[in-house]
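Deliverable D4.2, example record:
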Amino acid sequence: MKTHLAFASTLAYALDNLFGFGKYRFGLSAVLDLIPWIGDVIDTLLSLYIVWIAVEMKVPKRIIAKMIGNVAINFGIGLIPILGDTVYFLRKVNMKNVALLKQYSSSHHIVEGEIIT
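Output generated by the structure prediction step:
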């Protein structure tokens, strides 16, 4: 069974970097955004699952708030035709949120969602 952090990393990679086109990487988020409205909602729910993993890992509320803010900005901009598509290719919000998780977990010695004392 994968750890919370490993699963979040795998999901973020799939959403942000799964496919390549030349030197550019994009993921399922960019593909989902091609479906008006519903694609944005599905992508947001998947992105919020990474936030839920952070909640399960007992990450501080200030980091959770930053992660939710990242997802909210992506959702809002994602609703704008053409601009939203571009943002999903460039912003990589899920990878940013996983980076926040990794940074917190490495500084607090978290393994499989549990704090080691």
